[in-house]
Specification:
With about 300 residues, this protein is mainly beta. About 0% of the residues lie in helices and about 60% in strands. The protein has one helix and 17 strands. The strands form two sheets. A twelve-stranded antiparallel beta barrel has the order 1-2-3-5-6-7-8-11-12-15-16-17. It is globular and about 65 Å long.
Length: about 300
């Protein structure tokens, strides 16, 4: 039985981008209870991407350097495996926008971004087992649910269009299924982001309709616990309304990427991920590179 406890996903990798664009393999993976994971990571993005995609801005290019600290804790709840994940990111970004008259505006921001918290529980196929029991457990199909909450802790200026923080809460209920086939691990998730209003957007009220998100992952595990994965997601919806007036901001985007993870010592590993837009109908056309280190302990 492969020891997957040191291969937990690092949810901070995409906290800084559009909520629905998460590419997070092994969110509902079967691991032992009472496990702790601490991780630090760096993400670089380049292209037409905003920390808050609801902003009515066009022809915008952003370079973003992001660091984050992430903590995961697993535990038993009614004899089912549950987990809490907390991510706190810090970002520096600089960008430029081409206006309709041809002028180019530039600027930069630095500060903490919105905190992200996930609570999840595996309802089927993943009992809460301690470390010794888990070693002999054969995983088959897992069905899990989770609730992701974006907390408006990020730096925000009410007189500027581009900000690190979003100045609003957001919630994503999600359902996921995963199955292990020998060395291959397949999974798929579906969720919906719901947003509260931003009542301090340039003196106006900014609303956003729900954004729908689907993602799928296929990973191959080697005997030394190194693994590679293919990642993809599709997200659509999210039309924005400013002071009661809707704009042409509804999205229909598809992204693809790859993940590579390798252990470097007992309970320690590095993970590299790259993803890029495969289809973009409305902005948000960028690529992202990330590198993360994580340490697991009981």
């Amino acid at each position: 039985m492969p020891k997957f406890y040191h291969l937990l996903p690092l949810v901070f990798l995409f906290t800084l981008k559009m909520f629905s664009q998460d590419l997070e393999p092994r969110v509902y993976a079967n691991v032992a209870k009472n496990l702790n994971v601490v991780a630090i990571g760096y993400v670089f993005t380049n292209g037409n991407v905003l920390t808050d995609p609801s902003l009515p801005i066009t022809d915008f290019t952003l370079h973003s350097h992001n660091a984050a600290v992430n903590y995961i804790r697993t535990f038993g709840l009614s004899n089912k495996l549950a987990r809490v994940q907390v991510s706190l990111p810090y970002t520096f970004m600089d960008g430029s926008q081409t206006r309709t008259n041809g002028d180019v505006l530039t600027g930069s921001r630095a500060g903490f971004a919105d905190m992200k918290i996930r609570f999840g529980i595996n309802l089927l196929g993943s009992p809460a087992l301690d470390k010794s029991e888990f070693k002999n457990f054969e995983q088959k199909t897992i069905l899990g649910v989770s609730l992701v909450t974006s907390v408006p802790t990020g730096k925000y200026y009410d007189d500027k269009q581009v900000n690190i923080g979003t100045n609003r809460w957001a919630f994503k209920p999600e359902i996921g299924v995963s199955k292990r086939f020998a060395h291959v691990y397949a999974e798929a998730y579906g969720g919906i982001w719901f947003y509260t209003d931003n009542n301090d957007f340039l003196g106006k009220k900014l609303e956003q309709k729900p954004t729908y998100s689907l993602q799928a992952h296929a990973s191959y595990y080697f005997k030394n616990h190194m693994w590679i994965g293919f990642n993809t997601n599709w997200f659509f919806g999210g039309k924005t309304i400013t002071d009661g007036v809707s704009d042409d901001s509804e999205i229909d985007n598809w992204r693809v990427g790859g993940t590579f993870s390798a252990p470097v010592a007992k309970a320690q590993s590095f993970k590299f991920q790259y993803h890029i837009g495969a289809y973009t109908n409305n902005g948000l056309n960028y690529y992202a590179l990330s590198l993360a280190y994580q340490y697991s302990f009981f």
